[in-house]
Amino acid sequence: MKVTVDQDKCVASGQCVVAAPEVFDQRDEDGIAVLLDAEPPAERADGVRHAAAVCPALAIGIQD
Amino acid sequence: MTSTVNAVDERAAGAPEFPMARAAGCPFDPPPALRDRQQEGPLSRVRLWDGSTPWLVTRYADQRALLADPRVSADITRPGYPLQSPLPPGGSGVSFILKDDPEHARLRRMVTAPFAIKRVEAMRPGVQKIVDDLIDDLLAGPKPVDLVDAFALPVPSLVICQLLGVPYADHDFFQTNSKVIINLDVTPEQRSAAHGNLIGYLNDLMGEKIADPVDDLLSGLATRVTAGELSREEAAQMGVLLLIAGHETTANMIALGTLALFEHPDQLALLRDTDDPALVSSAVEELLRYLHITHNGRRRVATEDIEIAGEVIRAGEGLILANDIANRDPEVFAEPDRLDIRRDARRHVAFGFGVHQCLGQPLARMELQVVYGTLYRRIPTLRPATELERIPFKHDGSVYGVYELPVTW
């Protein structure tokens, strides 16, 4: 699985961090999402998929 | 072509009034007419107080698509925007939630940092202390007591005051003015006056923070005013928005959520008897979905023609996205009218969707987790002190809830 985050679209809701804290974090200065792991292992796939589904800005891309 | 136009006109002519009324005896359910609309088709027309006939969007998937669509504007000053009440004269002083990108994003990003997940988590022990102290006071005080006044309103008010750097001693002042602003039955003049009171108050406070910045959100804005990134008026405007949104919504979720649990004793028992944070968190999501307190729909206007669900929304036409009925969409939530705190309700749209999704949602979620995870465990016999029929509901508010909730134990 390959993950991308579009920081221009991101609205800093932080829901990706709640769904997959090993894969996403937030910038200190404005809460915009940062990708910690662009190719997360299979056991984190559900969390990442959920993060993408609830992202209000549709800023998370997933390639299987 | 002519026949199509006539069909649209006819549909507009027969459009039912919006907002719609809830059914008697079903204070937790959306209006039955909204459910009928959802079953009949994806889009329909409704009639507003000013005679306009915007589109009503009822289904979850369509709402998410439209709220995330850049051709859909939140700009309240655009012609065709479905107004909830008359626009205040002048149109100035509109906060960023009623503006579009890039201006919206520029302003919003100035206040996103304090709502980052880690920052909010760091506030949890402080919120737990606020909740514990208020429960101590409840237990030491007389009963029955009004849960709204003694607990539901103080919790988020204390939290937002701390976060913003607003003196809690002024809570009567800002709570009273906030109530006027979100009441749909007041006159435009009354609403303007209440808004002016809060703007004046925040403007004065901003002056203090500019002169002597400390470690709070308003001081963060003050620093930006000093740096020339933000006008003092814009800063005061944002302060008012955060102050109102920070206490009224969560307060209503606390009181209405408690009442909903009283009416679902099996669900209340689950919550009372657990110390599993995952179940408490799940209960918060389910109550947000089920109650959906911002019950008058998200309002938008199309800036271009948009094809969706077999219809064409024309540029300049208004949209009302009734998130409350989307949270009861059977395509997404099985048995949507059942309150089930063990279901996975995290996909709800109680905080909206798209770039305007509620800024404070991480804080609201954390506060509700602390409240729902503490109140019923510490007062296991907590129960209503009056019948459901005697409890006054906020049918007249832009935020739904109860005016009072007498409880005993």
Describe it.
Helices cover 23% and strands 22% of the residues of chain A. Chain A is of the alpha+beta class. Chain A has a single domain (2-63), classed as Alpha-Beta Plaits (2-Layer Sandwich). In chain A, the strands form 2 sheets. A two-stranded antiparallel sheet of chain A has the order 1-4. Chain A has a two-stranded antiparallel ribbon with strand order 2-3. Chain A is globular, with a radius of gyration of 10 Å. The termini of chain A are close together. Chain B is of the alpha+beta class and 409 residues long. In chain B, 48% of the residues lie in helices and 7% in strands. In chain B, helix 5 (117-140) crosses helix 7. Chain B is globular and about 60 Å long. Chains A and B meet through helix 2 of A and helix 5 of B.
Quaternary structure state of the chains depicted: heterodimer
SSE class of chain B:
alpha+beta
Describe the strand arrangement of the main beta sheet of chain B, using strand numbers. 1-2-8-5-3
CATH fold-level label of chain A: Alpha-Beta Plaits
Instruction: Tell me the structural class of chain A.
Output: alpha+beta
* Proportion of beta-strand residues of chain B: 5-15%
Radius of gyration of chain B: 21 Å
Mean pLDDT over all positions of chain A: 97
By CATH's scheme, which homologous superfamily of chain B applies? Cytochrome P450
Name of the CATH class of chain B: Mainly Alpha
Order of helices and strands of chain B: HHEEHEHHEHHHHHHHHEEEEHHEE
Number of domains as seen in the coordinates of chain B: 1
**Low-pLDDT residue intervals, each spanning 5 or more residues of chain A:** none
Strand order, main sheet of chain A: write it out.
1-4
Average pLDDT rating of chain B: 94
Overall number of domains of chain A: 1
Cofactor (chain A): [3Fe-4S] cluster
Protein name (chain A): Ferredoxin
Keywords (chain A): 3Fe-4S, Electron transport, Iron, Iron-sulfur, Metal-binding, Transport
InterPro entries (chain A): 3Fe4S_ferredoxin, 4Fe4S_Fe-S-bd, Fe-S_cluster_ET
